[in-house]
Amino acid sequence: MTTFDVLDWRRQTHAVYAAVRSEPEVASAHAMWIRRRDELLMTHPASPVPHADREGFAGADVPTYDGAFRFVAPLEPATDPETRGVNTGTDGVVRFERVGIVDLPDVGTLDVWWLLGYGGGLFVPIRDSDPRSYGGGRYVIDTVKGADLGGDERSLIVDLNFAYQPSCAYDPAWACPLAGAGNTVATAVPVGEKYRK
To answer: From CA 124, how far away is CA 112, in angstroms rounded?
Structure first.
């Protein structure tokens, strides 16, 4: 894998989310997202799925779209901003600042983080109680990688059907920022990409 492979992965991921945002029918957008993500996971040189596992990889395990888990969530400013550093190994310590909170009815509240490094970006992971979810949590919004369904300074589109596993769920050689206490909910979230090794 080269740096240009990673660049192409990010370009393609950004393009997938742009297509999702432009599709008016959300369930169709979700089906397209699954199809394109599977193609990238199975074939792209920068896929986190190890080469030895790709031949038998049947694609991500993603349940059918459920509109009950899509929220246009008001973005409440963080009254007590917090900065946290996440040791990611090869990338060193990645620093985030909590900039807000979103409340998802019947799910819980999630901290909204801003990446303090070059270029910045929003980051919203979630760790839930479903035993089929990756134990370290999944990513819902990660604008550095293009994972962004829309919103503005007043509200964010938080659609848990699009929650996906970080790269380290596929290969422990990757080091990923994981969900902390403010992004952990007691509820089981039955949608989004499920853990399959």
So the answer is: 5
Residue 48: partners with Cβ closer than 8 Å, 6 or more residues away: 41, 167, 168, 169, 170, 171, 174
User: How far is the first Cα of the chain from the last one, in angstroms, to the nearest whole number?
Assistant: 22
pLDDT of amino acid 45: 95
What lies within 8 Å, CB to CB, of 175 at 6+ separation is 87, 88, 89, 90, 91, 168
Q: What is the rounded CA–CA span in Å between residue 165 and residue 169?
A: 6
Q: Say what the pLDDT of residue 77 is.
A: 93
Question: pLDDT for 56-90, tens place per residue?
Answer: 899 999 999 999 999 999 999 988 878 988 777 66
pLDDT score of 159: 98
144 neighbors 138 (Cβ within 8 angstroms): no
The low-confidence residues of the chain, meaning pLDDT below 70, are 89-91, 197
